[in-house]
């Protein structure tokens, strides 16, 4: 694999992953499962995974029909999560020290692209928690 990748190569690779995985229910379920397993195994070793959780939460809320995500954003989220769990991407993950550098960069690109959607989701989450808190006080 080429260790000197460009942003365009990474974007094209993410696009191919998005096309491969699609946005159907089975794809979303598989990505959710694989990403949760990956995070559980690697969370202590890879620092940026704590930030990845928001994309996982967005995808999960969408798959449960609780939160709407447009197809473009959904494709980006699925692509980024698929890229994370794919061990042989632009820089294979097994290369000690740099194996996850491309994954980190991929997530930076996705977070930059989805910053508005992520903030909207966080606001929605906060409102949902507020509803739950109010309901528990009323009980």
Produce the secondary structure layout:
Layout: H1 7-21, H2 25-42, H3 49-63, H4 71-85, H5 101-113, H6 115-138
Helix pairs in contact: 1-4, 2-3, 2-4, 3-4, 4-5
Membrane topology: Multi-pass membrane protein
Organism: Halanaerobium praevalens (strain ATCC 33744 / DSM 2228 / GSL)
Main location: membrane
Account of the protein in words:
This is DUF1232 domain-containing protein. InterPro entries: DUF1232 (IPR010652). It is a multi-pass membrane protein. It is a single chain. The protein has helices at 7-21, 25-42, 49-63, 71-85, 101-113, 115-138. 24% of the residues are buried. It has 139 residues and is mainly α. The protein has one domain (7-138). Helices cover 72% and strands 0% of the residues. The model has no long low-confidence stretch (mean pLDDT 78). Helix 4 (71-85) packs antiparallel against helix 5. It contains 6 helices and no strands.
Distance between the termini: 58 Å
Our estimate of the beta-strand percent is: under 5%
pLDDT averaged residue by residue:
78
Shape: globular
- Number of helical regions: 6
Q: Could you state the oligomeric state of the chains shown?
A: single chain
In total, how many beta strands? 0
What helical percentage do the residues reach? over 70%
Broad structural category: mainly alpha
Biggest beta-sheet profile:
none
What is the gyration radius calculated from CA atoms?
16 Å
Structurally, how many domains make up the residues? 1
Element pattern in H and E: HHHHHH
Q: Runs with pLDDT <50, length 5+?
A: none
């Amino acid at each position: 694999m080429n260790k000197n990748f460009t942003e365009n190569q990474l974007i094209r690779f993410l696009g191919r992953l998005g096309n491969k995985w699609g946005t159907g229910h089975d794809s979303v379920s598989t990505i959710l499962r694989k990403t949760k397993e990956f995070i559980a195994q690697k969370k202590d070793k890879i620092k940026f995974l704590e930030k990845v959780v928001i994309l996982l939460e967005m995808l999960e809320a969408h798959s449960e029909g609780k939160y709407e995500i447009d197809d473009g954003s959904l494709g980006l989220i699925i692509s980024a999560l698929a890229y994370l769990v794919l061990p042989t991407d632009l820089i294979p993950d097994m290369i000690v020290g740099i194996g996850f550098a491309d994954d980190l960069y991929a997530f930076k690109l996705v977070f930059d692209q989805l910053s508005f959607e992520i903030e909207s989701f966080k606001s929605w989450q906060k409102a949902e928690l507020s509803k739950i808190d109010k309901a528990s006080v009323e009980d």
